[in-house]
């Protein structure tokens, strides 16, 4: 016995229907685009001072022959792993200084060692994590997770952007409870 109410066309269109998953989250920021540095100026200065201080220390060790008794190319070659570590530290510091975060109607974007982008319509969870009183040193983090389980962390320091992230988190929580 066959069911006369369903045809192959209606069955296949039900599978490919865009309404099969949960509704996408929609958020309208107060401003069209909010953009600013990801890290506080004091954290950037501390990072740069750390890189400069460790570079000076490494140079001083090399000049005193601490990497094999030679202050020439041979001593520098012996210090290779230390120099490569310092280069990695300097590269990361460069990204700390130039990193920016942007929030608009499409999503969150942060320039970083690898740029991060999170579309708002895919969000399942968002939470603002901050340590009050030491935000000058520890940048507040905006933790996001998609419906597929992928998570990202965005660093946010501007007060208006922190307020927008807090509002986004509350609206998303209310939206997903339905």
SSE diagram, text form:
Elements: H1 8-15, E1 33-37, H2 41-63, H3 73-78, H4 80-98, E2 100-104, E3 107-110, E4 116-119, E5 123-129, E6 141-146, E7 151-155, H5 159-177
Antiparallel strand pairs: 1-2, 2-3, 3-4, 5-6, 6-7
Helix pairs in contact: 2-4
Can you offer a commentary on this structure?
The chain has a single domain (33-177), classed as PH-domain like (Roll). It has a four-stranded antiparallel sheet with strand order 1-2-3-4, with no helix packed on it. Helices cover 42% and strands 20% of the residues. The protein is of the alpha+beta class and 178 residues long. It has helices spanning 8-15, 41-63, 73-78, 80-98, 159-177, and strands spanning 33-37, 100-104, 107-110, 116-119, 123-129, 141-146, 151-155. The protein contains five helices and seven strands. Helix 2 runs antiparallel to helix 4 (80-98).
Structure in a nutshell:
The chain has 178 residues and is of the alpha+beta class. It has a single domain, classed as Roll (PH-domain like), CATH 2.30.29.30.
């Amino acid at each position: 016995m066959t069911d006369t109410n369903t045809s192959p066309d209606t069955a296949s269109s039900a599978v490919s229907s865009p309404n099969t998953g949960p509704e996408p989250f929609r958020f309208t920021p107060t401003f069209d685009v909010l953009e600013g540095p990801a890290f506080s100026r004091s954290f950037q200065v501390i990072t740069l001072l750390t890189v400069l201080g460790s570079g000076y220390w490494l140079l001083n060790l090399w000049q005193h022959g601490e990497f094999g008794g030679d202050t020439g190319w041979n001593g520098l070659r012996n210090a290779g792993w230390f120099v490569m570590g310092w280069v990695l530290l300097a590269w990361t510091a460069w990204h700390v200084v130039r990193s920016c975060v942007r929030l608009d109607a499409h999503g969150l974007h942060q320039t970083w060692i690898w740029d991060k982008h999170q579309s708002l319509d895919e969000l399942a969870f968002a939470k603002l994590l901050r340590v009050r009183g030491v935000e000058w040193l520890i940048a507040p983090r905006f933790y996001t997770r998609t419906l597929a389980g992928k998570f990202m962390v965005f660093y946010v320091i501007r007060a208006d952007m922190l307020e927008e992230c807090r509002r986004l988190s509350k609206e998303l929580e209310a939206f997903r409870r339905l």
